[in-house]
Amino acid sequence: MGLYFLFMVPPLLLMLYAQYRVSSAYNKYSKVPNTSRLTGADAARRLLESQGVSGVAVEVGKGTLSDHYDPRAKKLRLSPEVANHASVAALGIAAHEVGHAVQHAHAYGPLKIRNGLFPLANLGSQLGFLAVIAGLFLYYLGTEFGLTVSWIGIALFGAAALFALLTLPVEFNASRRAKAMLQQSGMVSTSEYNAAGEVLSAAALTYVASLVQIVMQLLYFVMLVSGARRRD
Q1: Structural domain tally of the chain?
Q2: Deepest of 137, 152, 214, 224, by most Cβ within 10 A of its Cβ?
Q3: What pTM was estimated for this model as a whole?
Q4: What is the DSSP secondary-structure string of 122-190?
């Protein structure tokens, strides 16, 4: 148990810090009106048009900071606070999601690979942990095949870790595209550009924290299963 906390507490603290950064930056700049007086939804539509991306619908979703681009439906869903408000934070977040739509339209390599890996990664995040624990349980009951089950679980969890790794270049690239689009469009002043960048940088840290968390958990599983064999 002590080893588990050694592996998992640092990533947990990093995740809590990342969430604090996001909340702090968003709360600060969601209260600052942008000089263009554009809501997030209006800005998203203008940016999509300026990038020559057609066929993407901009919708109002549900929840706070639930903004995302759905490549299967070709829909950009913005949270109500972003879609309906003309804040600096709304511009940055909307532009980031447009960045994903542009990636999809241009067949951005890392995005294609990540999307292709999603079914396996989703399976791994849901079943990997259970397979590792179930395999160890069977092994300690005397079933040699239990270790094989555990290693299969580790492989599945590894797919989830690879997905988290591939998410980094996808998200960083979307943020770079967002800042470039905002600057080129003339929607933001210099101070607003920097503020939007602050919001996007804070959001990017959550993906780094998520990767660290899943990699540390994967390493813990590897040590656990490897240690079970050595104790024989």
Answers
A1: 1
A2: 214
A3: 0.90
A4: HHHHHHHHHHHHHHHHHHHTT-THHHHHHHHHHHHHHHHHHHHHHHHHHHHHHHHHHHHHHHHHT-S-H
